[in-house]
Design goal:
Elements: E1 2-3, E2 15-22, E3 37-40, E4 46-48, E5 52-59, E6 64-68, E7 72-78, H1 83-92, H2 111-114, E8 117-118, E9 121-122, E10 127-134, E11 139-144, E12 165-175, H3 196-214, E13 223-226, E14 232-234, H4 235-244, E15 250-255, E16 261-265, H5 267-273, E17 280-281, E18 284-286, E19 293-296, H6 302-320, E20 329-332, E21 335-338, E22 346-347
Parallel strand pairs: 2-5, 3-5, 4-20
Antiparallel strand pairs: 1-2, 6-7, 7-12, 8-9, 10-11, 10-12, 13-19, 14-16, 15-16, 17-18, 18-19, 20-21, 21-22
């Protein structure tokens, strides 16, 4: 057994049966995928509840290739590159578009899986393709943006290709005719100068400041960032909630298959209204500054984090009739699972 505590930012003291690091994509052809396994980047969106009985495959390949034409700049980025370092390097190089996604922890290869997003931007807007290794077919190939089936915090890599496809590279496409995205509340106050690079830097620094205020550095206080997804509900349910909570933040996200308006709620607001800020179970605490974040102060177990998740889910269900789903990947002894009010942990 090998230690995993330093490989996931929530830092519960757990072990794995074995760990291998992939520095070159070709190494994947030599991996025995017949045994239980999981793919891990920097572990910033993953919590191991218990000792993992399988193989952890850590993607550590590096490399960035740049090309361009009259309208676009293209980057091909290895999965093992650090995401925030990529954001910083593109901005320094005058490649604009990632500034709203600054300071999101994790690796580049993890970004398409979760379709990361923040402050009005989702990474799907900038991804042109994803390259990887199909485990069943034993071959490398490329998926277009459309083939990735991106949606809110979802992708084909969490669905049809889960445990079947290992992302090795991500292709990004940036418009040279950049436009600032300032739709998120605190960013609306930014005064643009007309100098695109300077304006992008303003957004970058504002986003970093917001995130540093709300999200503690996992190297100082172990955490996994935003723990729950912002729930999406339909208009009839929203109108019922508004009657009792008229100030509830809600954002339109389009129509469902029956042409009923759908709205996204702020999970952090719901948790805060339920008075969870500062609430603790053993060493697990709801961040007093941002209720969407759970902190690990140590001396805690997978059972403690499970009880915290269930306590929050049950209270939000009782108070708002809304189901909360954890955004963070939960790994139990036999693999990834989901924690819901109906199942304390089941294979997802």
């Amino acid at each position: 057994m090998l230690p995993l505590q330093s490989r996931h930012t929530f830092a519960l003291p757990v072990m794995a049966r074995d760990i291998i690091e992939i520095s070159k994509a070709e190494q994947l052809t030599e991996v025995d995928f017949n045994i239980p396994f999981m793919i891990l980047g920097e572990g910033s969106n993953t919590v191991f509840l218990n000792d993992y009985s399988g193989l952890v495959i850590s993607m550590r390949n590096k490399g960035i290739e740049k090309t361009q034409d009259d309208e676009f700049i293209y980057l091909n980025v290895a999965a093992g590159e650090n995401w925030h370092e990529l954001v910083c390097s593109t901005l320094a190089d005058g490649i604009l578009g990632l500034e709203n996604l600054a300071l999101i922890p994790g690796s580049v290869g993890a970004t398409p899986v979760q379709n990361i997003g923040a402050y009005g931007v989702e990474v799907k807007q900038l991804i042109e393709y994803v390259k990887g290794y199909n485990i069943n077919q034993k071959r490398f190939y490329t998926l277009s943006n459309e083939q990735c089936e991106f949606s809110y915090r979802e992708s084909i890599f969490k669905g049809q290709l889960k445990q079947k496809f290992v992302i090795t590279e991500v292709g990004f496409k940036f418009k040279k005719s950049w436009r600032a995205e300032l739709s998120y509340g605190p960013l609306k106050k930014i005064l643009l100068t007309g100098n695109n690079k300077e304006d992008a830097k303003k957004i970058f620094h504002q986003v970093v400041a917001i995130r540093e205020e709300k999200l503690p550095d996992p190297k100082k206080i172990p955490n996994a960032g935003s723990f729950f997804k912002n729930p999406i509900i339909l208009e009839p349910k929203l109108q019922k909630i508004i009657k009792e909570y008229p100030k509830i933040p809600h954002y339109p996200v389009g129509l469902n298959s029956q042409n009923i308006k759908a709205f996204k709620l702020a999970a952090g607001w719901l948790i805060e209204q339920a008075n969870f800020k500062g609430f603790r179970i053993a060493g697990i605490e709801v961040n007093p500054k941002q209720a969407l974040v759970l902190l690990n102060h140590g001396n805690s177990t997978g059972e403690d984090i499970t009880n915290m998740i269930l306590s929050i889910q049950q209270t939000i269900k009782d108070k708002f009739s809304v189901d909360l789903e954890h955004e963070v990947r939960i790994i139990d002894t036999d693999g990834e699972c989901k924690i819901t009010l109906n199942h304390s942990c089941f294979k997802g």
